[in-house]
Amino acid sequence: MAGGKPLNVLFLCTHNSARSILAEAALNHLGEGRFRAFSAGSSPRDNQQPHPFALAVLQEAGYSTQGLRSKSWDEFAGAGAPGMDLIITVCDNAAGEACPIWPGHPATAHWGYPDPSEAQGGEDQRRAAFRATLQAIRNRIEMLVNLPADKLGRLVLQQSARALADR
């Protein structure tokens, strides 16, 4: 984070409807201006929207859902896209896919979470799966945002973010 400029973080998943959306909102809330979060999917479905339970649990947690939308990672690989400092895959499918060549060669990490949209049961059980996923994401994000500045420099950012995957 040079000169007070926030670190740009892109969270990737397959459809960009649940885990990556949760992570984007959580980091934008918890990052307190030191981080700017974005999310995208490797292959969002036509007319894909954020999962209603994702939006509901974010609102319950007091996180803004304004501007959240499902989008393709192609939006972040082309000219004119914001430069990313860190790209984090949050689902195993996206982690195994061939990613675009990201401008600026950002640091990368994988923080895998089960897909809450695959939870079985009634509405209460399915909503609980989204809450649990948000809490797991929040735990790692809190560690990320509390890293000392020397752990956020370009050369050590990847190592720092990957180490958080083990926690």
Explain the layout of strands and helices.
Blueprint: E1 7-13, H1 19-30, E2 35-41, H2 52-60, E3 86-89, H3 92-95, E4 107-110, H4 123-145, H5 154-164
Parallel strand pairs: 1-2, 1-3, 3-4
Helix pairs in contact: 1-4, 2-4
Explain the overall architecture.
The protein is α/β, with parallel strands linked by helices. The chain has a single domain (2-160), classed as Response regulator (Rossmann fold, 3-Layer(aba) Sandwich). The protein contains five helices and four strands, in the order βαβαβαβαα. The protein has a four-stranded parallel β-sheet with strand order 2-1-3-4. Helix 1 crosses helix 4 (123-145) and helix 2 (52-60) crosses helix 4 (123-145). The longest helix has 23 residues, at 123-145. The mean pLDDT is 88.
Task: Based on the model shown, name its key terms.
167 residues, alpha/beta, Rossmann fold, four-stranded parallel beta sheet, 5 helices
Tertiary shape: globular
Kindly report how far apart the N and C termini lie: 23 Å
CATH architecture, by name, is 3-Layer(aba) Sandwich
**Briefly, what CATH class?**
Alpha Beta
Order of helices and strands: EHEHEHEHH
Strand content: 5-15%
Q: How many DSSP-defined strands?
A: 4
Overall mean pLDDT stands at 88
Helix % is 25-40%
Report the C-alpha radius of gyration, rounded: 15 Å
Largest sheet: 4 strands, parallel
CATH topology: Rossmann fold
What's the CATH superfamily, by name?
Response regulator
Q: Which stretches are low in confidence, meaning pLDDT under 50 for 5 or more residues running?
A: none
Number of helices: 5
Secondary structure category: alpha/beta
